[in-house]
Structures are given as structure tokens and as C-alpha cells.
Design brief:
5-stranded mixed beta sheet; two-stranded antiparallel sheet; 11 helices
């Protein structure tokens, strides 16, 4: 049933996430022009929720209607469940953009976790590390709230969403795999993974392109591999520290036991000395006295050796701890280093040089030659001014530059 609904009474789909998938302002502007030419068209579906109408899709069109100054628009009112609202919203993604897939996948996993959407059960032969448990997106981690009652895989999730999210063979498209990877990194709060990965620009300049799904999957894989290696290094360092600490404690225990034994022997010799003196056996007393002195000297030498040994063990233990701390710093800095290498590689790559050489040999018109020159000049100015200024402002670099200037 079609009804004219006041724009002030319209609410977004409960599954809509404008933070992950913001309104396309360019599209809204285009729609405003279309409304001004042909008027607003039908095709928006919604449901009544209390005193408001919640639309299933068409959020760009609703914003365009508001921008165009309309007060009300026609909406097809139907009885739609939460599951219907999710399916209607996700099926509107006709091109399979990753930013839209991220919104749809996030909403579907949450809905499955609370039971408003049903997923097919994973194949019993599915590897355990490929199974997730809603509302979590971390593989192999049952949710504390739902236990293991909501298992799913990228494929079962994709088949539920349908449309552009499923390959012809029934497996999940790369956009679903990439979206799950991003959500997993966010849920685990993984260091070195940017929450704004969708908006990382490609190339040396701000061309406005999104990172593709395959690249996101590769980045997630690299982060996981880096985590595994860092964990292995941390475990190795922890084991080395444990062994060094164990050696230290063993040496301390042995020293304590030896000192107790020496004290016992010393007391026994003193007792014998007293007995010998009591029997006026000077010879035995002198022998015992010499034995006491020799043992005291030996004990003192042994104590000094033990001190040196414990000191060396302490030094080894501290060195292991410092090495582990330095390795942690290296692992934490690694994402920054990799991003630095990536940018430097872009700035230093020479493939553009060959393209420019080839173009310069072509019979360009004066206008096109001027356009190429202007682009090179603009890029050079941008790199030498704004781009370079981002690093000149670094305190240490600024001081180094000043010292170099005084020379």
C-alpha cells in the first residue's frame, strides 16, 4: 500500500550504518537535480514502527528529497520483519562495493547473533579455523553471550545475503571475505591495522580510490602472519627468560645448600676441636685447626665464585629481558616501517619515467605537451611543498635540517 509519508516521520533502516557506509553526497546532488526535472519517483519500501516509518532502502533518495525541499514522499508500506529489512537493504547493493558490503556483513552477523536472521549450518567438514560464531567475527572463538549456538562461515553468510555477495559456485565473493577480515581486526583491536583501511589512497597522490577487496584480504593476511611471527618471537624470548631465571634460582639453591653443608661441617670440626683440646691432644687440635682454616679459605673462594656466577646469570637474565623488550618495540613499529617502505617505493619507482620518455617521443600537440608539463609541475610543487612539509615539521628532522643549514 502506497502512502505519502512526511519526511520528518521517516527513519533509517535499523541495519543501516552511516558511519561505515556514509551517504554519497555526489549521488544526492545528482538525485536532487533529477527530482527538480522529473519529480520524486516511487520505489521506496518501508514499515510502520510506532509513530514512524522505517525505510528498507533508498536513504540517498530520502536525503535528496529533503535537500530538494520536499515535505513528504510516497512509500510502499509493507509488513517487514527485521530479517526482511536486512535482505531488502543488502539486495540494493548492485555493484558489490566493499564499503557497502562491510555494512551489510556487519549487520547480518549482529542479526544472526541475536536470532533475527537465520544462516545455514556450516558443512561438517569445514575446518574449525574457518568457522566463526556470531556475533563475533573472530574465527574459532565462540561468543561468551551465545556460546557456540550461532556458527557460520563466509560462504553461509554470503548465501544468506545473496545477490552480488555470492559467486556462481556458491562461495563468498572477495567483498565478504574482506569485510569479515576488517571486522575481525577491529574486534580484536589489532595493532598496526587501520580502521580507515577502506579509505587508504592508491598511488602517490590523492586520487580518491578505495582499496580493493583482494588488497584488503592480503593486508589482513599480512597482519595475521605478522602477529604469528611476533607471537613466536615473544614465546621464544619468554622461554629464554624462563630458562635463565631457572638457572639463576637453581644456582641460588645450590649455593644455599652448599653453605648449609659447609656450616654443618664447620660446626662438627669445632666440636672435634673442643674434644681434642679437652683430651689435651694438641696434635689433633692443630690438625683440626688447620682443617678449619683450609675449609674457610675454600668456602670463601667458593663463595666468591658463586657471586661471580650469580652476577653473570643476572647479566644474562637482564640481557634476555632487554632483548625481548627491544623485539617488542621492533614488532610494534613494523606496521609503520612497512607503510613507509610502501610509500617510498611509490615515490622512487621508475616505471613512470619510461612512460614519460615514450610519450615525449610521440608527436604531441602543443596543448597536450603543455598539459603534461603542467601536471609534472603541479606534482613537483605538491611534493616539494605540502608533502615535504609533513616531515620537515618532525622535531628531530627539523633540528637536523637546522644544523645542516648552519654548516
Amino acid at each position: 500500500m502506497t502512502k505519502m509519508i512526511l519526511l520528518s516521520d521517516i527513519r533509517d533502516n535499523l541495519h543501516r550504518d552511516k558511519k561505515r557506509n556514509p551517504i554519497d553526497t555526489d549521488k544526492v546532488k545528482s538525485l536532487v537535480e533529477s527530482i527538480g526535472t522529473t519529480g520524486f519517483w516511487k520505489g521506496i519500501y518501508g514499515r510502520v514502527v510506532g509513530e514512524h516509518v522505517e525505510i528498507a532502502f533508498g536513504h540517498n533518495r530520502v536525503d535528496a528529497a529533503r535537500a530538494a525541499g520536499l515535505k513528504s514522499i510516497p512509500v510502499e508500506i509493507e509488513k517487514l520483519t527485521d530479517s526482511d529489512m536486512l535482505m531488502r537493504m543488502t539486495r540494493e547493493n548492485l555493484r558489490g562495493e566493499l564499503v557497502v558490503a562491510l555494512e551489510a556483513v556487519s549487520a547480518a552477523v549482529k542479526a544472526f547473533g541475536i536470532g533475527t536472521v537465520e544462516f545455514a549450518q556450516p558443512n561438517p567438514k569445514t575446518r574449525k579455523d574457518a568457522i566463526r560464531y556470531a556475533p563475533s567475527t573472530v574465527p574459532g572463538k565462540p561468543s561468551e553471550a551465545s556460546g557456540a549456538s550461532h556458527p557460520y562461515t563466509a560462504d553461509t553468510l554470503a548465501r544468506t545475503l545473496g545477490g552480488v555477495y555470492v559467486k556462481p559456485d556458491g562461495h563468498a565473493q572477495n567483498t565478504v571475505e574482506a569485510a569479515l577480515g576488517i571486522l575481525e581486526m577491529e574486534e580484536r583491536k589489532v595493532k598496526g591495522f587501520s580502521a580507515e583501511i577502506l579509505h587508504v589512497k592508491s598511488g602517490a597522490g590523492p586520487d580518491g580510490k578505495y582499496v580493493g577487496s583482494k588488497r584488503v584480504i592480503q593486508i589482513v593476511s599480512e597482519v595475521k602472519q605478522r602477529e604469528v611471527k611476533a607471537q613466536e618471537r615473544a614465546e621464544k624470548s619468554a622461554e629464554e627468560i624462563r630458562l635463565a631465571d631457572e638457572a639463576k634460582r637453581k644456582a641460588q639453591q645450590e649455593t644455599k645448600e652448599r653453605e648449609a653443608k659447609e656450616q654443618k661441617e664447620h660446626d662438627e670440626l669445632l666440636r672435634k676441636q673442643v674434644e681434642a683440646l679437652a683430651e689435651e691432644n694438641d696434635k689433633a687440635a692443630k690438625r683440626i685447626q688447620k682443617e678449619i682454616k683450609d675449609k674457610a679459605v675454600a668456602a670463601e673462594a667458593k663463595a666468591e665464585a658463586d657471586k661471580a656466577k650469580l652476577k653473570a646469570l643476572d647479566a644474562t637474565l637482564e640481557a634476555k629481558k632487554e632483548a625481548a623488550q627491544e623485539q617488542r618495540k621492533v614488532d610494534e613499529y613494523l606496521p609503520i616501517r612497512k607503510e613507509t617502505d610502501r610509500i617510498i617505493h611509490i615515490l622512487e619507482r621508475r616505471d613512470l619515467e619510461e612512460d614519460l620518455k615514450a610519450l615525449s617521443r610521440r608527436p604531441l600537440s602543443l596543448m597536450d605537451r603543455e598539459r603534461v608539463w603542467q601536471s609534472i609541475d603541479n606534482l613537483s610543487a605538491w611534493l616539494s611543498s605540502w608533502a615535504a612539509a609533513q616531515f620537515i615539521r618532525t622535531p628531530q628532522l627539523s633540528k637536523t635540517k637546522q644544523r645542516g643549514g648552519r654548516k
